[in-house]
């Protein structure tokens, strides 16, 4: 099966683009949050400037006996300086007005009351002017400095205000984009050198090492000067790659060695088989000394052939995943007892205490091999202990919570300390002389493949193994 090899993105793609976009977006959002109050303040300042010009007219009003009698040569420059159509001055219940003679007064001007300083209202009015303003007439109402209780109103077109707001907003937007771009680029350069660059280097090295993990030159060389998270990651990755490299080399050596041993074992088994045939012929001779030595020779050859066959069987095992199906546990126990040499044994009693309705969901071949191994080991241990009066092997079934527990127990001599230390280790966990120690290693491998575990129980006599299968294995019983 081919693997899809990912490629590391370029400098302006992948993680880099995401970081730049995120930084620029955050800066723009901050700029927007600052832009709205700034726009409102600019509008207020603009209106206050017009109101200050109107305050000059107020002083004229205060000095003139009758505002209506002021000549146009005096009032028109004041109005033009303020950009106003008319100026209204209200004080002590009196209202005075000057206006351009050639301009018609609007009926419903848009109110801009500078006496109301609510921030949200100012922001809303600034956006209103920016979006929909321009064709209206403003009525600016405020109290100019030094005017006391007097109120000044200025009527003027809104278009100059909107034009200045558009220019101001455009400048702010341009400056914001430049600031966001420059800031994002600077932060990207820093992130590229401190974070993204090392991550890309680690990614490239990991991909290369995955393609050829037995190439020692692809093991990463960590930056020992870095004490941050990247440095820790580099050193941890280097240690992991070095351990994996050594493990793969060892595995290759063991595989080659196992292949050689398998070939030797195969040839040795053939030679031992030939020797067994010759020993059978020798056993038929009438020589008393030959008759005395022949059984020992046959027994030794049988053990050697069994040892060679066991090693070959272990090497040929396939690691196919289990295929679970409902299994009659009691019937499977009897079949395994037959394969393990317990059924019909002249001395050993096999006690199958599993109820008739016990059904579990498990791979039947795997569980059969497990039980056969355990039954066979128990039989061999009891056969080697003729002093036991009533030897037995007991197979039981119980529930521990929601899990299923199978127990294989005997009243034999038990396991020696050395066998307990390496109980499930191949070639080291044999409990009898001449054994390979593969049986229990196979038992653990098969049970773990089915999601369970096997352990040796502490008992007052004999040996007892418990097999725990997950709750999904219970199908009834």
UniProtKB/TrEMBL annotation:
PROSITE patterns linked: HAMP (PS50885), HIS_KIN (PS50109)
Residue ranges crossing the lipid bilayer per the database entry: 19-42, 165-191
Record-annotated Histidine kinase domain positions: 263-473
Location(s), subcellular: Membrane
Domain HAMP: start-end pairs: 193-249
Keyword Nucleotide-binding annotated: yes
Classification via Gene3D superfamilies: 1.10.287.130, Histidine kinase-like ATPase, C-terminal domain
Entry protein name: histidine kinase
């Amino acid at each position: 099966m081919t693997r899809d090899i990912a490629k590391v993105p370029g400098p302006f793609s992948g993680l880099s683009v995401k970081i730049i976009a995120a930084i620029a977006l955050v800066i723009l959002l901050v700029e927007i949050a600052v832009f709205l109050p700034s726009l409102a303040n600019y509008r207020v300042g603009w209106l206050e400037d017009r109101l200050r010009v109107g305050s000059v007219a107020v002083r004229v009003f205060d000095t003139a006996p009758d505002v209506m009698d002021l000549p146009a040569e005096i009032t028109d420059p004041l109005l033009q300086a303020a950009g106003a159509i008319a100026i209204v001055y209200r004080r002590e219940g009196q209202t005075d007005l000057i206006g351009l003679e050639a301009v018609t007064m609007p009926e419903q001007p848009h109110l801009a009351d500078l006496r109301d300083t609510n921030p949200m209202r100012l922001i809303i009015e600034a956006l209103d002017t920016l979006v929909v303003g321009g064709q209206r007439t403003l009525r600016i109402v405020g109290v100019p400095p030094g005017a006391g209780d007097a109120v000044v109103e200025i009527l003027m077109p809104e278009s100059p205000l909107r034009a200045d707001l558009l220019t101001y907003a455009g400048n702010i937007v341009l400056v914001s984009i430049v600031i966001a771009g420059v800031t994002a680029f600077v932060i990207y350069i820093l992130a590229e050198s401190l974070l993204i660059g090392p991550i890309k280097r680690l990614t490239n090295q990991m991909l290369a090492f995955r393609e050829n993990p037995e190439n020692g030159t692809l093991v990463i060389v960590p930056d020992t000067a870095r004490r941050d998270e990247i440095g820790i990651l580099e050193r941890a990755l280097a240690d992991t790659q070095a351990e994996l490299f050594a493990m793969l080399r060892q595995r290759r050596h063991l595989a080659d060695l196992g292949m050689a041993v398998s070939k030797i074992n195969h040839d040795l088994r053939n030679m031992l088989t030939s020797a067994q045939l010759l020993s059978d012929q020798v056993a038929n001779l009438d020589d008393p000394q030959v008759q005395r030595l022949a059984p020992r020779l046959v027994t030794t050859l049988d053990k050697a052939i069994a040892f060679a066959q066991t090693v070959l069987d272990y090497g040929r095992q396939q690691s196919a995943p289990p295929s679970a199906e409902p299994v009659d546990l009691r019937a499977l126990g009897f079949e395994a007892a037959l394969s393990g040499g317990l059924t019909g044994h002249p001395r050993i009693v096999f006690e199958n205490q599993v109820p008739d309705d016990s059904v579990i969901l498990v791979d039947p071949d795997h569980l059969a091999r497990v039980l056969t191994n355990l039954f066979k080991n128990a039989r061999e241990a009891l056969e080697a202990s003729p002093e036991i009066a009533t030897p037995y092997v007991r197979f039981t079934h119980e529930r521990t919570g929601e899990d299923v527990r199978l127990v294989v127990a005997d009243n034999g001599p038990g396991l020696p300390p050395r066998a307990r230390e390496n109980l499930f280790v191949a070639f080291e966990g044999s409990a009898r002389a001449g054994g390979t120690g593969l049986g229990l290693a196979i038992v653990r491998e098969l049970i773990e493949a089915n999601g369970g575990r096997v352990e040796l129980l502490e008992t007052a006599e004999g040996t007892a193994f418990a097999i725990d299968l997950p709750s999904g294995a219970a199908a009834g019983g």
